Amino acid sequence: xxxxxxxxxxxxxxNAAPASSAxxxxxxxxxxxxxxxxxxxxxxxxxxxDSFEPSAVLNRCPLPPPAAAPAPQQSAGSGVPSANDKRxxxxxxxxxxxxxxxxxxxxxxxxxxxxxxxxCKQTGVDPKLDLKDPKQNADGVYRLAKVLEFIDSAKAxxxxxxxxxxxxxxxxxxxxxxxRSGDARHGTEAGMxxxxxxxxxxxxxxxxxxxxxxxxxxxxGSNKDNFQWAMGEAGKALWFVPGLSNVLTGVGNSEGxxxxxxxxxxxxxxxxxxxxxxxxIGSITKGRANPAGMLFGAYTGALANTEAAPQPVKDIASxx
Length: 320
Prior knowledge:
Helix content is 46%, strand content 1%. By secondary structure, it is mostly helical. A hairpin with a 2-residue loop joins strand 1 (166-167) and strand 2.
């Protein structure tokens, strides 16, 4: 009997291996069972050399190309007119064509507070020449058109939209706010034109109408005539009578004219009915489904929906 030694077993001899399973030096230095590694390499489509040659692996699985550097962000223009504005590239219109393409410039009056000559000096237009004169500075007319369009499309003094004057960011093509004597009321488009003529581009810092205490100026920046002004003031004084107050206020805020007066009155009346109906429903849901409770609810609901009522009064009425 031959006593087995540590090297008797072929599995324990470092240079011995089954003939059917030749092991390369690289496989000997790799971790894990040889057959397991070979099976994984075959399953992944690699040969023996592929499994262990870094260059072969990289050729089969190339690294993704580096991501392209993002294009620099183009800063969007603020839309505020500038003294350096010129016709864009490709715009070869004459001064006359620019005037015809810009309703607000074409319709601009020459009342005293429009200060036309000062407007021309601010924008580089030659005031001695007609706007459509072939010798007129076309870039200056372009700048004047941009200023007027900017003012014509301004938001209300509160920052809200003037949906009856501005559609899709474009004004109605009419500078409003001039009185019959040619004065420009503060807080109107005409007032902004006057301020620009006197102060220049630094005045165009906000795209909205200035605030004003002039009671002849409506929320949309247009003028009230004397009749509208009187109706609006009466509506303010009678705020505690919701129906009457809303009708008078509606007339005061109307577009004027017979049709406008009727539409304004109807709007005020419907607002009162809406508030009263909401008040009645509220009284029922709060358990006051009796004639007195419903009348009280109708009044408080209408009062909460009265435009001329003080805001604290409307807040309290809406909670009752």
